[in-house]
Amino acid sequence: MSAVGRKPRAYHADRVRDALLAQVEFVRLAVHELPKELLARPTDLPGWDVRLLLAHIAQEMDALPRLLARPAPPVTRAETDLDRWAAGTRGLADAKDRDARDAAERQPDHRAAIDGAAEELDAVVETGIRNDLLIPHAFGAMRALDYTVTRVVELVVHSDDLTRATGLPVRLDRGALAITVRVLADALAAKAPGASTELRVPPFVAVQCVAGPRHTRGTPPNVVESDPLTWLRLASGRIDWAAATATGRLRASGERAGALADELPVLG
């Protein structure tokens, strides 16, 4: 649930669509150039090699078409939002593991799986960016636009997973990266509400979080600052606080800034 008193961030439908389709294309291009001998390489995801990661990526791309094909939920208002989705993803891990393994067995051709999912997604993406349409979700009815935002987040996070596992860079669309960074920062603010600490991820977002004395003027006494890619990896559990600070790409100042470490990751 969104933090009390914090207005939900609005995402422009056209920008979400463009970011999603751009990141899909970057994934497709990378997958078609991926040597088959790299499919057995391990990833940072426990028990998964590159082959399973690709099967999961295809599943995440195809999730929007699958949900849109189901009956509309019998409610008139959204029951879940982006903050609740981010907080609940860890609980879906076992189901996603099973789905990825089943998908990899059904379709061993990773290129065909990604291409097919991309085509299915492209066919429904205009419906997926509607703000007035509710779709069913495990956590409750969700606005179609919000769910499409989650597809951007999943694709960016897993594009980086693929880069790290194979050593072959998958480009990250700037718009898609910006959306992902903001969703993860807002999820942290919802998980640790307050105004004693400011998280900055320039040039995309700054949010206040962590309970304590509220800061009102000048430079906040507690500041955490990171580049976008480090924040993405930290918030999704790919690296921990100690590793991020050791590189110098995560900087924390003030006695309360370190409290953020206990709230991470925000995405399962």
TrEMBL record:
Could you list the residue ranges forming a coiled coil in this record?
none
UniProt-recorded Gene Ontology molecular function terms:
isomerase activity; metal ion binding
Arranged from A to Z, the UniProt key words for this protein are: Isomerase, Pyruvate
Matching entries from InterPro entries are given as: DinB/YfiT-like, Maleyloyr_isom, MDMPI_metal-binding, SCP_3
Q: Which SUPFAM superfamilies match?
A: DinB/YfiT-like putative metalloenzymes
Report domain Mycothiol-dependent maleylpyruvate isomerase metal-binding positions. Answer: 22-162
- A Pfam family cross-referenced in the UniProt record is MDMPI_N
Q: Where is the Bacterial SCP orthologue domain?
A: 173-266
Q: Which NCBIfam families match?
A: maleylpyruvate isomerase family mycothiol-dependent enzyme (TIGR03083)
Protein name listed in UniProt: Maleylpyruvate isomerase family mycothiol-dependent enzyme
- What organism is recorded for this protein? Streptomyces triticirhizae
